[in-house]
Amino acid sequence: MPAKIPSVRLPGNVQIPALGLGTWLLNGEKCASAVKASLELGYTHIDTAEMYNNQVEIGNAIEGFDRKRLFLVSKAWSNHMHFNDLINACEKTLGELGTDYLDLYLIHWPNPKVPIAETLKAMQQLKNEGKIRAFGLSNFTIPEIEQALQTSKEIATNQVEMHPLFRQGKLLEYCNSKNIPITAYSPIARGKVFQNKTILKIAERHGKSPAQISLKWLLQKGTIVIPKASSKEHLEQNLGIFSWKLTAEEIQEIDSIREEVRLVNPGKYVRRIAGFFLT
Ligand SMILES: NC(=O)c1ccc[n+]([C@@H]2O[C@H](COP(=O)([O-])OP(=O)(O)OC[C@H]3O[C@@H](n4cnc5c(N)ncnc54)[C@H](OP(=O)(O)O)[C@@H]3O)[C@@H](O)[C@H]2O)c1
């Protein structure tokens, strides 16, 4: 029997499954088989992006599954932030995925060279036309979200790096105050949490894996988690995070971890965007 995954309500009354499958660096046959295996196990939420170059494979993998039960998320890259470019990027993504609509469409990275109001107006048009059910942000800082909120009150999520070694305390507090749930990417820090003593101790206490402790801490913070997994063992393990809880003391212990690891360096990305991708 496929697992039942609880949902988080996004602004605009769209329900997003709290656990999704991340697909960055999943390509070709490996991508198609991981996505298919995940759907058979009960995942419905798949996270992709035009930049991941795997939307055709995902489109093939979801064929035969009931579209209405799926939750497909994609992201537009930074060189598609002008109004018409975003509309065209979305059409291309829909074609590659073989679907009429996305459940959620995100701005992958802020682009300081295009007014956010222009991009959000294109998002709103896509929503009005039924091509996306909701839209949101990724990698936005507090001042950048403030700016986005001046144009739209319909921002559904901010997808950012978050895990026990990069806790995003201030951003989480701010997003909570604006009712914008965070989607946590790299939620197990690509395995870096497995060496942390606090995580290992709590994992042993619960008879769970360090990956499960990391994901559970994020869920109990109210975030949505999108671990990437390609093996059936990992896919199954990451589903086993719903029928038990960390105590308030354990959450506090993880909140107090001093080690800090940031995997995605925004400086590097901003430079790449500014240097190579902006038109
Ligand atoms: N918006 C953005 O800018 C952005 C940036 C980065 C990532 N993302 C999204 O977030 C997703 C997840 O982030 P990520 O891929 O960077 O890192 P991650 O999910 O923290 O880590 C993925 C790695 O952990 C392994 N793994 C998964 N479950 C495991 C388990 N239970 N036990 C042990 N190892 C396990 C995977 O191995 P196997 O593959 O071998 O199973 C893979 O090597 C991405 O795929 C992407 O969709 C978004």
Automatic annotation (TrEMBL):
SUPFAM superfamilies: NAD(P)-linked oxidoreductase (SSF51430). It holds the Pfam family Aldo_ket_red. One of its GO terms (molecular function) is oxidoreductase activity, acting on the CH-OH group of donors, NAD or NADP as acceptor. It comes from the Archaea. Residues 19-258 form the NADP-dependent oxidoreductase domain. InterPro entries: AKR, NAD(P)_OxRdtase_dom_sf, NADP_OxRdtase_dom. Keywords: NADP, Oxidoreductase. PANTHER family: 2,5-DIKETO-D-GLUCONIC ACID REDUCTASE, NADP-DEPENDENT OXIDOREDUCTASE DOMAIN-CONTAINING PROTEIN. This is Aldo/keto reductase.
